[in-house]
Amino acid sequence: MVDDINQLIKKNKAWAEEITSGDPSFFDQLSLDQRPQFLWIGCSDSRVPPNQITGSLPGEIFTHQNVGNLVQLNDVNCMSAIKFALEELEVTNIVLCGHYGCGAIKAIIDNSAEGLLKKWLEPIAHLYQKNKAEFADLSVDLAYNRLAELNVIAQVNSLCRSNAVLDRWANNKTLQIYALIYDVGSGLLKDLGVNISSKADLFEFQRSAYF
Length: 211
Prior knowledge:
The protein is an alpha/beta fold. The chain contains 10 helices and 5 strands, in the order H-H-E-H-E-H-E-H-H-H-H-H-E-E-H.
């Protein structure tokens, strides 16, 4: 275990040296403040690091991650992150990103989630049951992928009903919300065609969605 930690520290040192070799003042400037333009809400999966897959530097993306990239209105952690991002950091874009090959999605379709995980993933389970007919003719892998996409769309709907987001629009302040999914097998992001920038957009989105 000590060797593992030492490796992390060694890699960190090499990374910091690489950054400063290109910009000696980078960390001095970064330590003064953060002004990200994006809040990224995604899955905790270790294969989906937001900064790395988007080629972004520290300070460019404010992140909130959890198992299954869920946005639950009673989740104080998630709601606090959204509120802080919008009111303190004044981000103008929120990305809700899921990914193919998600263990949370597989646990729902395979009915293998237990205990706290099963409780946490209840919103995905309800989504799956509500749209189960859509999966009848799909292979298992395609069903995993489709539920991952539907889950992203459902979480966007939940996000748009949060007080912080509604207050932002009520005050006529710019806020764009997007839905993406990441393909672990190719390293590419896929746009799910969701772009919500007002309550009017939200109502139109809800009329055509699956929840």
